[in-house]
């Protein structure tokens, strides 16, 4: 029977291990989200596959192009390792005392685009209350009143964010709308994502341990091998129903922290999440995905000749002999 001191030591070791898993997971997550190819992959996945299944393709595609990059930036700007790993049972306050763990993963600052967005939003809000008219037409009319050197930029801004503006202008105030377009990052960076659930970190622990053991045990450190091992572990996690539910609950918790948009956000999550999980399982194929990302050379057996490997939004020609 373990003594109380031994039990306490074992408990501390487990806690330290879980904390290390969380901090490593956050670092990996940030490495992925800061890669523009990863963002493009996610946007393309939604555009080419999810939107095709829900019957509202043009609007869905435009929202994917406009919102997904902004949401990724928001998560990085609003998150810190200390906050993400602060759930009960993951990392203690002492473990997170290092000041570097309280630094956001992405530093942001408002610029002139923020002022332009607020002008457009206020123009629509101020006009629409007294006259029934198309919000985008109202916005363009407001641009016409600006000095010539600003009017063109105003019109281009509206054209770029037309779908987001028209979709959310009624449900969000101007500050929230401009956060939604990514025009005022300091606003949305103040909305902090919730800490990662302890159950998700527990699920990550064996996958991360297997991955690290493979490298430590003499597996190749070649980037292609590392990529393929990571995809195998990611597929295992995404296929796990418990992990899927954890991610769904976590995303809905994020929705709950978005003022006035929580209900609509939850509807989108409930509608899209099952489709995304199924598609991710399909596309997390180590050889194809790592080749598509340019990390692995694409090779096939010589007798197969040239063929195509399809990933969302990508067409990769594979030639015999890896030419």
Keywords:
3% strand; mainly alpha; 2 strands; 323 residues
Notes on the protein architecture:
The protein has 323 residues and is mainly alpha-helical. It has 15 helices and two strands. The chain has helices spanning 4-33, 36-54, 57-78, 81-84, 112-128, 135-144, 148-160, 162-168, 174-180, 185-189, 198-216, 223-238, 241-256, 262-283, 286-292, and strands spanning 307-311, 314-318. Strands 1-2 form a two-stranded antiparallel ribbon. α1 crosses α11, α6 (135-144) runs antiparallel to α7 (148-160) and α11 packs antiparallel against α12.
The major β-sheet equals: 2 strands, antiparallel
- Helix- and strand-based class? mainly alpha
Oligomeric grouping of the chains: single chain
Taking Cα atoms only, what radius of gyration do you get, to the nearest Å?
23 Å
Round the mean pLDDT to the nearest integer and report it. Answer: 79
Poorly predicted regions: 5-11, 300-323
Q: What spatial order of strands do you see in the largest sheet? A: 1-2
Number of strands: 2
Principal-axes geometry comes out as: globular
First and last CA, distance: 63 Å
| Helix/strand order | HHHHHHHHHHHHHHHEE
Number of discrete helical segments: 15
Helix content, binned percent: 55-70%
Strand content: under 5%
TL;DR?
The protein is mainly α. It has helices at 4-33, 36-54, 57-78, 81-84, 112-128, 135-144, 148-160, 162-168, 174-180, 185-189, 198-216, 223-238, 241-256, 262-283, 286-292, and strands at residues 307-311, 314-318.
């Amino acid at each position: 029977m373990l003594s109380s001191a031994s039990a306490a030591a074992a408990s501390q070791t487990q806690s330290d291990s879980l904390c290390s898993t969380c901090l490593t997971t956050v670092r990996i997550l940030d490495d992925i989200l800061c890669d523009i190819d990863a963002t493009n992959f996610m946007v393309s996945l939604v555009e080419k596959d999810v939107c095709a299944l829900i019957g509202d393709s043009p609007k869905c595609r435009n929202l994917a192009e406009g919102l997904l990059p902004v949401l990724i930036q928001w998560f990085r700007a609003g998150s810190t390792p200390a906050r993400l790993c602060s759930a009960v049972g993951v990392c203690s306050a002492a473990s997170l005392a290092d000041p570097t763990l309280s630094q956001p993963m992405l530093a942001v600052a408002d610029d002139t685009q923020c002022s332009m967005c607020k002008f457009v939003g206020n123009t629509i809000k101020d006009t629409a209350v007294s006259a029934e008219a198309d919000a985008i037409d109202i916005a363009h009319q407001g641009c016409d009143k600006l000095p010539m050197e600003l009017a063109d930029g105003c019109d281009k801004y509206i054209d770029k964010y037309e779908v987001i503006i028209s979709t959310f202008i009624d449900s969000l105030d101007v500050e929230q709308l401009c956060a939604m377009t990514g025009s005022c990052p300091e606003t949305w960076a103040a909305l902090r994502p919730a800490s990662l659930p302890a159950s998700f970190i527990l699920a990550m622990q064996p996958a991360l341990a297997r991955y690290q053991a493979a490298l430590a045990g003499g597996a190749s450190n070649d980037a292609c091998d590392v990529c393929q091992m990571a995809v195998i572990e990611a597929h295992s996690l995404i296929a796990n129903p418990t992990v899927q539910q954890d991610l769904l609950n976590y995303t809905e918790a994020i929705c709950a922290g978005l003022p006035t948009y929580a209900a609509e956000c939850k509807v989108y999550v409930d509608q899209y999440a099952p489709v995304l999980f199924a598609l991710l399982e399909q596309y997390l194929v180590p050889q194809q995905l790592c080749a598509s990302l340019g990390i692995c050379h694409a090779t096939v057996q010589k007798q197969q000749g040239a063929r195509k490997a399809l990933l969302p939004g990508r067409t990769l020609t594979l030639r015999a002999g890896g030419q």
